[in-house]
User: Fold these one by one.
Assistant:
Number 1:
Amino acid sequence: MISKLLKQGSHYASGTVLLSIASLISFPILTRYLPMSEYGILSLLTTILGLFVALNKMGLQQSVLRFYSRSDSNFNTSLLILLISSLVIVGSLLTTINYLYSYPLISDYFYILCLSAGLQAYKSVILNCYAAEQESIKVNLFNVIYKYLGLSIMLLCLLYMEHDALSVFYSIVFTDIAFTVLISAIWINKVTFGSVDISLIKNMAYYGAPLMIVEFMQVSHAFVDRFIIEYFLSAESVAAYSAPYSIADIISSVIFGAIATALVPIYMGLWKDGKKKETELFLTEVSNYFLLLLPIIITGTYVISMPLMTVLASDSYANSAYILPVALAGIAVFSSTFIYSAGLKFKRSQVKIILYVFESLILNIVLNCLFVNEYGILASAVSTIISYLWMSFRYFLASQKILSIKFNISYFIKGCTVSFLMYLMLMNIGRSGSNAFDLLYFTLLGLSLTSILLFFLDKKIRVLLLKKCGY
């Protein structure tokens, strides 16, 4: 099963690398072309967009993974009707709320936010139809097309329009419109449509609605600190906080995101086939390697944080480089929930999932409000880690009642040992004075040292590598 995970994960990772390259191109352009205050506003707007997208999806992207059937033509018709209905309902609701209560930042961009959110929700649901068939290569291809199309349009907008957040948002809308036309033409020609299955629509709606609440709270959890920072500090502080988080998100999407995307369909398939023992062993092994790699990745990011921030974001953001490894730690802890919440997903325990995410969200908000004014943006990053740890812990305890996932602390200790040895070796090497050279040199050296240490300290990795080499 691990080999299958690595195979599917490698497909998603290859696509994620291409997506990350696009992000690595766009990110330095944004941080250099936009003033820090405008970059901070852009960060807040993308947060609002994420919340709108979560509402528009209504959890249907998860319903697709649960109820998808290639042989049932009624599924496609029912899904399309339910999706369009949800977009109309949510759009009407948001318009009413905006009319009754106008928040300045949202009101100024409301219609383009709603349009982009609806189109992105549509894209997410359709792509999950391909993911449900485990067509990882096609999913990657579509995501890569979307990303590079967006990059091209963004460059054109910045070239011919103002260097502000609005220009960037126009590029997002133009991209969403063009991609929606493309993916609709391909998907409609691919599938067959049957009659409307009312019972299937009800099942998908009932299954997805609680997950929509979860996703909305998760997006709120991930980005609510931006609004708190803006309230207590400034838009420039939001930019200083968001920039390292953007880099951390790129790193996490390559390392953790690809595996998480491939992981869920695999263990859901095992569980549907009645293979409880195999599911437990598989998730335990995934947990082991997560615990092993987590401290190594965070330590490595700490070593290269200053040159990485300077090269990608510019000298203006160098002072917030210390946030980068802390931000990555928070994102990584959240990624662990894909492992430790498996049991709740099997039993469709949406109420418990909502409760645990809500607890974590409230904890994050309270910690931010208490400490961000005194300790600055570092308090926000640490608050995120603490709240995500609570969420993951709650997931783990609840899932243990359904299936047994062993939490082997020995792997985490082994990872910390490798991290410590790597850190000692790298910190005894002088810096060259060139941030670009230091970034490349320390990255390659750190990867080499880590590989050697893991080869000698972990038997399973050693056996796997020797087997791959024909020994």
Number 2:
Amino acid sequence: MAASTVDGTGAGNGGGNYIIYGADASYFTQKALSYFAYKGIPFEYRKKTLAVQGEVEEKSGTHMIPVVVTPGGDYIWDTTPVMLGLEEKFPAGGILPATPRQRILARVLEDYLDEWVPRMVVHMRWLNDADAETSGGAIVRDMMGVSADAALDVPQQAIFDQVFGQLRDWGIKTCEKVGAGRGDAAQVEEELGRFFVCLEAHLQSSKYLLGDRPSLPDFTLMGALQAHFLFDPTPRALVGQIAPSLGRYHSDMGAARAGDAGAWPLGDEIPIGLTPLLQQIGATFMRFLPVNAAAVAAGDKELTIDLGHGPRTIATRRYTEKCRAQIAAEIAALDDVSRASVEAILAPAGCWDAYQD
């Protein structure tokens, strides 16, 4: 079902529809939009403009986007819990497999795409002038409620320049905070290239991440593609050079609908093409998770880690630890046979120990 888009001048109840407040160049806004479209959930997409910012943030309790307003008027956010909660109301074309290996792998892949890939995203977006101007400009125009091709008058240009400057300053500081600053460029950009190569190899033989049906992490990857990797000029060029299959994948995800959902592999099998990607996750994100968990437990605000390019001191991430602990609890709740089968998939790639509490 196609969404209607309005200008975001008021925060109504959507006439019984869900409302999604966000921005076009937002990773997690596009993740949510992709999911709602796939499920056929009636919704309106509204830009979170400066005109509604105060009301939306007061009612939701967050400055983050997207914010989803339910038909009952509740303001909710945090895309993964929102989506998993909606699965109970809209079960057709479910996005989490029922079998243990595929289900846990979907959770691990989504954890990586939600909590680790964004550090590569912010690095590419905010430290390259062309990318910052493209996407930062788009975000500011969304905030102002001005279309991409509209000319700005003098007062509007002054607002644009001020907000853009604040936004880019925030982006650069965020890069440093997550260990993706200018001094980390070699490591981050090499890792992004490997990520694209792994996806290209996998998508040569698989329609989606887990087979012929979209699963939870596919919507996160779609958000990354729509808002960043196929939007910002530098990663878009890189995708064209080394991962052209992502263009086909993006089209397939845009057309996917729950009523026509395919199937995941029989027998709880895992697509063999995922092995290189899992190995990359094991060599990066899985090395970060236990260090971060220890830092959170100790109440530390920073941690030091070496991912192969020398030690880096970066901010501790409490929400990332919350996500890790949730997956660890899901694994711990499995019966012995299921748990062993999951271990047989994750352990060889270095993706097991981080979820053992």
Number 3:
Amino acid sequence: MHKKGKSIIRYRNLDVRVTEKPDSEILNLLDNTVLGSAGGLRHQLTNTDKRIKAYGKNIRFVSLYIKDRLAGTVGLCYRTSLSAAKEHHSSYIRYLSFMPMFRTALKRKEPAAKTSKQSWKQEVFAFFRKPHLLGFPGYKQGDKHIVYAYIESHNERSRNLIEQVGLENIRSFITVPFSRFYPRESLRVSNLPVTDRDRMKNILEGFYASHSFFTSEFSFYDDKYYIIKEGDNIIAGLAAFPNAFRIVDMPGLKGWLFMNVLHRLPFLGKLFNPREVRFLAIESIYCKEGREKELEEIIETACAREGYNLAITWLDDKSALYHRIKEKTSSGIVEKMLDPTPAQVYAGFVNYTDEEKKEFRNRPAFIPGFDFT
């Protein structure tokens, strides 16, 4: 094995290598990656190394080298996801980063004359269609497999690459922020006891039975799952992970106000500082019908206990849960200021029939908040 990983694909002077852990060169690339694209919010994550470690043995870095020089890397996280209570081998594209010298080549579409032949991109990125090359535990060649990614609406560069390697747009989702200037703690809210985790996992699997891509992989990460109980019944719950990112650029007049004015004001400065946007990432939301207001109570309590004023979750914008939360909870001032637009879920299906693919287009997608931290 090469010191920089195992070579899985060679094409002319390009070499694709896979590693279970990122070396310092890959980490440096990821740490300096600016997410987003021109015309939209551009930001940097601040805890890349910690999050990579959380994925443990279920992450692979597939890196492209040109004459032994790193040109880019893709981080894929393997998980067994649920759709209609059926298990599916799945890989989520967690990181996608390329050196500036290589971005132009990725953005450029192949001439029409070449469409009947394999382009260099199809050759180099064949691992999207051949997941057995990545050595994920429990996955065998010939098994069904789904590779999926989340793409912002304005991110043409990422969307162009994802489409060229064979992924297709199947669903959309939206960012839902909750903000409070002075979050209040409720004594009704408690951390889920370890002894109740299996029970809560079963509840979540039932609650999201109509969804695709459901996973409880990080629902109970770092003991951050909060619940409200009545007697022995759990009526509402959610996971809330402390996180932060740094804003690099935000376009337009609204962006200028966010970057230069609003964070200097006494109250709004609590919610928004472009140098460090601190928030709780929310996922694995559960509540009984008609008890949506309890979600507000839990989020406020989590914010108060963790010392945060902002929480963010991501929901399929055509799901019943999104509309329940939208109609029956108060999200606060940040949502009104940001007016978020839907992003896209892209997926590539290996060994699936057209009829089986249709199931994923017709079901709301579960969007784990942990994957955005």
Number 4:
Amino acid sequence: MIPTNSSKRILLIAYNYPPLISPQSIRWLYLTRGLVRLGHRVDVLTISMPGHFKDLMDMIPKDSRIYRTFPGLFYYITYKYSRERSRGDNRQPEGPKKSDDDLIFRIYMLVHGILNRLFVPDIYAEWLPQALIKGYCIMRSRPYDVLISSSEQRICHLVAYGLKRLFPVRWIADYGDPWIYPVATNRESKLKRKIIKLTESHILRHMDFITLAAEGIKRLYLKDYSFLKDDKMEVVTQGYDPEAFELLPYDPKGDEFVLTYCGSFYKDLRDPSNLLSALRELDIKEMRVKIAGRINEFERPLRESPLAKIVEYKGFVDPMSSIGLQKNATILIFISNATDTQIPGKIYEYLGAKRPILCITGNERDLSARLIKDANRGIVVKDRKEDIKYGISELYRLWKEGVLESSFNLRDLEGFTWLHSAKKISEVIDKL
């Protein structure tokens, strides 16, 4: 344990927490571990999950109390019949699969869409009453110095707001993503977005401090909400765990030029179309491509294209399997978001893999591209087919000449570990 000047009792409100896996879930698992290591006591209010979900449960700090509550009827059913079961299961986690039963899938999506439009801020608001009641009981039974809410899901901030009004506690609101994204990633109406913004504007005034996963999110909030103060906001980035990478063997196939992509694809936000076009035109006999993650509407075209001969799509994999894929890649492929608001958290995990990165960027102010350039961790190309072809060909040339690894800085970067980020949270707590 690394002692701090003042250890605190913290209640974390996090809908996304193991065994439910998402970037924000992993963020707060590691930040919880870091805060406990720094001497704080961290308990968690989260959702209950079916017993077949087991991912990362063994990594939750043993001294932390985990309070689980009913997520609401819709997601109770979704998780109960989900195909994501346990470590090593590569199938998709959300609801019925379209190819299994098209009618069930369409009904599922119809119900989801209706409920998502009715609830504010979204469908996850079905967790609100259970979370408030449980949170009230928890805070009545034992005192907490600090309340931390993790968004997303957005509903966590509303739970924290309710508890803040009932108890004399300091509140840190953490944003992994902005509530209203500059690029529309779902079908929220203008009226719904206005209601969400009014709701957020109100609760922002009651937060004692705000932490954000990227500088772009902070810049967006300072622009959209003029009453916010810069000195009450702190950027706490995602990170990587050096110990997790050390646990897994480094055993690459020396005769294969392996390009690996871990993460999600989203049309209009993190679109792989130009990458896939470039791969189709490259003639590199040693090249193999591995993709792991939720690639949504790109899955079927990928499986049916000629690329299927060289691309191995692994579906959704558990976090440790993802780390293993990254560590044994020749090159890691990274696609930046279409906006400069945030940095996909996967880039920090890529840093921990200590492999050269091909960063594909679509805008001039891309924070991910700047990070790769400053760290000399790989090369950056624009999101255009010819540029991507050039980038892959250049990295292939370095690999064939045996100078790939010596061409880049592949050392540990201590400033991007989860413990470093936890120390920043601890410093924020000390300011309250």
